[in-house]
User: What shape does this take?
Amino acid sequence: MRLSTTSYLVLGMIALRGPSTPYDLKRAISRSVGYFWHFPHAQLYSEPDRLAEAGLLALDTEDGGRRRKTYSLTDEGRAALRDWLAAPTPEHFEMRDVAELKLFFNEAGSPDDVPKLAREQIRQHESRIADYEDMVARHGREPWAEPRMITLELGLEMEHAALRFWTALAADDLDGLRRERAERDPRR
Assistant: This one.
């Protein structure tokens, strides 16, 4: 059976949080991985069944009522997750940013579109930075959260980089951004 990134997301989330329903997964992902990994949430209702059929998850279905399905990780599922975590990641970072796509096609639009887009992006990145910093303030020193804070630090770095770019673009100062980047880069 071929496992997708979504397969590993489901296995990893159940490994971290324990037995889960698809709804539990959806909520947990929206509060964690969902900040940086977007995918159709409908997959969270079909993928666990597929993984259970493959023996990577165990399925427990309620006898009555809503017949809620709860999935837990099997030894085979844990082994598959560990193999994936240990394997090299040859894929280059992929950024699927609609704002960047709009920026690429900017010459086909109105000259007012780029400054408007920049202002909107500044607000969005400032808001995301505030959300991330709030997470660090709430959970950063808790032992259970420490391993996950590494990902949050990467998210903060990326948000700050995007904010620097959009702020420079809004101020019509891409040359200043280039100078700052050259000063930070020890290879230059």
